[in-house]
Amino acid sequence: SIEGPLMQGMGIIGDLFGAGKMFLPQVIKSARVMKKAVAYLTPFMEEEKRAKAIELGEDPDQPKYNGVVLMATVKGDVHDIGKNIVGVVLGCNNYKVVDMGVMVPCDKILECAIKEKVDVIGLSGLITPSLDEMVYVAEQMKARGMKTPLMIGGATTS
User: Fold this and answer.
1) Does the active-site annotation cover 130?
2) In the prediction, which pLDDT does 71 show?
3) Whole-structure pTM value
4) DSSP 8-state code for residue 21
5) Nearest to 68 by CA among 91, 38, 97
6) Rounded distance, CA 74 to CA 92, Å?
């Protein structure tokens, strides 16, 4: 598909970063370029999906996604580079991404997850207190009996 080479490029960047041969500023720049490229290519990718749906006898106005993923940077944190990279990769792999942005309180995250009937909740944060907020979200999910898988990421999570 159209976005294949972009995904391969981001894979190489991830490998270089993991090996210490590329540093965060270059990763950030690469992610920004990827985001702009995906924004440019989105109409073409949507047309490709519509044509495939028509070919399969499906309704092209009812897109079929591999799943729905809610993404949010937790309350107290404004860093979203990693979240944005993950969102682009998920979008390129036919996931519907509900991006709530940054500084998102727990209640808003959980309300949106229920309203949107998401398959996965993804939380992001760069600073140390963000990990505590992620734990709080997980505790609130458990208290509410939510069974939605929780994916966390960011510098403090590794």
Assistant:
1) yes
2) 98
3) 0.78
4) S
5) 97
6) 24
